[in-house]
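In these records, each integer encodes one residue's backbone shape. Here is one protein:

___
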Amino acid sequence: MNTNEIPGKHPILKTASIAMNVILCFIRMTYIKRNMLNGWKIKLKPYKMKTAKEVSDHIKSNAVTMKDIEGTPLFKRLKKENQLLRQCELYLKTSPREEYLKSELSFIKIMIDSINSHYSAWIQFNSGKFKNPQTAYKIQMGIPILQAKIKTLKYLLDV
């Protein structure tokens, strides 16, 4: 008998058990959230992507609220929110994968950082043309649209 073998366990089962432990550790690590308010606390909460049914329920609850507060500023805000939620609902009906949404979110964040890093070069050529050059730069580069996409993706991913 080899000294590396565990008596009573087949080598394949030993390898499978090690692999399973590694996978479980990885899963636990991905769900750890840091809470800096009260030291380090571990919360095992899996990321949960919204479903089309949850979004439609949110739309319905907004509609009920809107009936009660018609003609107020909150009514207008809920109306805009419902428009966004309808688009989210239609998108969720196409069954996007959660991994895809996460990769899109990280890609858009990288894109915004890249655009912001080129501001200093842009300002050299356009220094006197705009009253507020930073706002003009963000509008020209489409950052408000990208920020709206980030907001939508965060809502769908429930981040």
About this structure: The chain is about 70% helix and 0% strand.
